[in-house]
Amino acid sequence: MSNKPPQIVALLSGPDQKGLVAKVSGWVFENDGNIIHADQHRDQEEGVFFQRVEWAVEGERSAEEQAKAFSEFGDSIGMKTQVAIAGQKPKVAIFVSKFDHCFHDLILRWKAGEFPCEISLIISNHPDLKAQSETYGIPYHHIAVSKETKPDAEAKQIALLKENGIDLVIMARYMQVLSSIFLDTVGIPVINIHHSFLPAFAGAKPYHQAYKKGVKLIGATAHYATADLDQGPIIHQGVANISHRNSVGDLIAKGRDLEKFTLAKAVLWHLENRILVYGNKTVVFD
Question: 2 falls in which pLDDT band (50, 70, 90)?
Answer without folding.
Answer: low
